[in-house]
């Protein structure tokens, strides 16, 4: 395992969870690209660091609080880190709460995340990373 790549991805989760989008900017490559899971309201692709961070800011705009838990590294090879996680969100005004189990495939290049694909299942995330068997 590339502990450095895993650490970068986990730090991204920490900053995202803390609404630290300015800090998260340093983790994303200037030419980064992100896609969302099938059926997601805004699936992307989001291309370039500004677009990626802008999308994260939009997602967080109406939250009163949110949390990420159950993060598990599924794979770490060929520059990719694939994780599963649970994301719980509560609306700031409505108080409505929801949760989703997701998977993410992150490609790390030159100590920054250059590509990320969010999917509903670990198999889909492994496929997005080109790591499925």
Give the structure's gist in a few sentences.
The protein has 133 residues and is an alpha+beta fold. Helices cover 29% and strands 44% of the residues.
Fold and architecture overview:
This protein has 133 residues and is α+β, with helices and mostly antiparallel strands. The protein has a single domain (3-128), classed as Nuclear Transport Factor 2, Chain: A. Helices cover 29% and strands 44% of the residues. The chain is built from four helices and six strands; from the N terminus they run ααββαββββα. Strands 2-1-6-5-4-3 form a six-stranded mixed beta sheet, sandwiched between helices. It is globular and about 45 Å long.
Q: How does the overall form come out from the CA principal axes?
A: globular
Largest sheet: 6 strands, mixed
By secondary-structure content and strand pairing, the structural class works out as alpha+beta
Question: Averaged pLDDT, please?
Answer: 92
Write down the Rg.
Answer: 14 Å
Number of helices: 4
- In the CATH hierarchy, the third-tier topology is known as Nuclear Transport Factor 2, Chain: A
Number-wise, the strands total: 6
Task: Give the helices and strands as they follow along the chain.
Answer: HHEEHEEEEH
Q: Terminal Cα separation, in Å?
A: 18 Å
For the largest beta sheet, what order do the strands appear in spatially? Answer: 2-1-6-5-4-3
| Helical content class | 25-40%
Share of residues in strands:
35-45%
Q: What is the highest CATH level, the class? A: Alpha Beta
Please tell me the CATH architecture by its name.
Roll
The total number of structural domains is 1
Low-confidence stretches: none
């Amino acid at each position: 395992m590339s502990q450095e790549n895993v650490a970068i991805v986990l730090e991204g989760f920490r900053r995202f969870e803390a609404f630290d989008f300015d800090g998260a900017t340093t983790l994303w490559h200037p030419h980064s690209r992100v896609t969302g899971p099938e059926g997601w309201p805004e699936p992307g692709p989001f291309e370039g660091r500004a677009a990626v961070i802008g999308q994260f800011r939009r997602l967080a705009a109406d939250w009163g609080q949110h949390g990420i838990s159950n993060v598990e590294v599924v794979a770490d090879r060929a520059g990719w880190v694939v994780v599963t996680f649970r994301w719980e969100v509560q609306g700031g005004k409505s108080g409505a709460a929801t949760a989703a189990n997701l998977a993410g495939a992150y490609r790390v290049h030159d100590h920054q995340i250059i590509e990320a694909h969010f999917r509903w299942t670990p198999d889909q995330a492994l496929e997005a990373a080109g790591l499925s068997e």
